[in-house]
Here is the input.
Amino acid sequence: MSKVVPVLILAAAGLIIFFGFAGWPGQTELTAFAACLTDREVAMYGANWCSHCQNQKNLFGAAFKKINYVECTSRRAECLAKNIQGYPTWIFADGLRLDGEQSLETLAEKSGCVLPPKN
Here is the structure.
């Protein structure tokens, strides 16, 4: 019985990640939001092995492809030049830096991009 509980928890987490987070706008709206972040010169610096980066990417789902993302494992010089010390790190055009996972609401507030309302 004790082995069943962790398996059920992992299965539930997988379903949430696969099907998206309930209440968030659809991918079309999130794609527009992600494109706005890129248009406003917001960039996320991360690493493919970083679980926090994966969580951040999952918030956007397929819309993440519109994010200006710098993979620090393959672009080390750029990340060193920006003094990236942890993942993810968000850098804004005005120099503002946010370290760690950020909510979509925080990214909207700091960037001025409009986050569509939750369903």
